[in-house]
Specification:
The protein is mainly α. Helix content is 74%, strand content 0%. The chain has 13 helices and no strands. Helix 1 packs across helix 12 and helix 7 runs parallel beside helix 11. The N and C termini lie close together (6 Å).
Length: 298
């Protein structure tokens, strides 16, 4: 049995809950909830989910917590903004496959910054690379897609930014109390989200009926997945391995869209056989990656 089974299970659960949130959010966006508006409300709910963290800490909030949490929160917000710019560039279909490289970036930044207390094993490196390939296979756009260099750049910056965040979280959280650092991180994300309000289209506060019902339904699971993932990487030194398990959200998405998509009215077209085979291959590579992580951790 893997010695770090707890963070792996938390990361796996986080990926599943994220997928539920993403499907609900997608339905809200299709009905007109607004991309930036949905992101802002989601960030605020996510920040609220971390309000109890300081009360669970063994020490009071200090300047180091504010500095470390604020710095990581700023990087997280910058990665989110880069993702939004990629979407605005018309390359939404490219964000998912390129985000698969996040696990590789986590391992790279851990090595570059010297944040890993133990050497990253060969099995973990192979698992991270397989995960990147798997997510690309699962989420690669169809033949009609024509990504731009600018959009690809923003998508790559998104993966690198989130990878850097996940490499920094376990290091800085263990220099202080993880509860305090994580609270400051997501509190800063919530505060920075106020800067996005001018970019929102339409009336920001006014209730939009059905679109907002789906949007609010997606916000809570998004906050829950953030808490689960914060436990997986903020309280344990296995961010690369945890991201391999978290990447199973690509697999969860395929299964949930097939089961839940039509029930909630998602506009998902018929999937060609070639795409189904490519996604099946990606799913198999994900399972191999998970096996390698558990093998290296036994």
């Amino acid at each position: 049995m893997p010695s770090n089974l707890t963070p792996y299970l938390f990361a796996l659960a986080a990926g599943f809950v994220y997928t539920i949130s993403a499907l609900l959010a997608k339905r809200g966006l299709e009905l007109g909830a607004g991309t930036v508006r949905s992101l802002i409300y989601s960030n605020w709910v996510m920040a609220l989910c971390f309000l109890p963290y300081p009360m669970l800490a063994n020490q009071s909030l200090g300047p180091d917590d504010l500095k470390a949490g604020g710095m990581i929160g700023l990087l997280f917000f910058a990665a989110q903004s880069s993702c939004f710019l990629a979407l605005r560039s018309g390359d939404a279909s490219m964000v998912t496959p390129i985000m698969g490289s996040k696990s590789v970036f986590v391992a790279f930044f851990l090595l570059l910054l010297g944040f890993s207390p133990n050497p990253i094993g060969l099995e973990t490196w192979i698992a991270a690379i397989l995960t990147a390939i798997a997510v690309a296979l699962i989420g690669w756009p169809g033949r009609g897609s024509k990504p731009t260099i600018k959009g690809l750049g923003f998508a790559l910056a998104t993966a690198a930014g989130f990878g850097l965040v996940d490499a920094m979280v376990p290091h800085f959280s263990h220099l202080s109390d993880p509860f305090n650092v994580l609270f400051c991180m997501f509190a800063s994300v919530g505060l920075l989200s106020f800067l996005l309000i001018p970019l929102s289209t339409g009336k920001f506060i006014a209730f939009r009926g059905q679109p907002d019902r789906w949007m609010w339904a997606s916000c809570l699971p998004m906050g829950v997945q953030a808490v689960l993932m914060s436990i997986a990487i903020g309280f344990h030194h296995v961010p690369t391995e945890a991201n391999v398990f978290y990447s199973c959200r690509g697999l969860w998405a395929i299964l949930l869209v097939a089961w839940l998509g039509k029930k909630i009215g998602l506009s998902e077209g018929a999937t060609p056989t070639q795409t189904q085979l490519r996604r099946a291959l990606g799913a198999c590579l994900l399972l191999v990656g998970i096996y390698l992580v558990t093998l290296g951790d036994s």
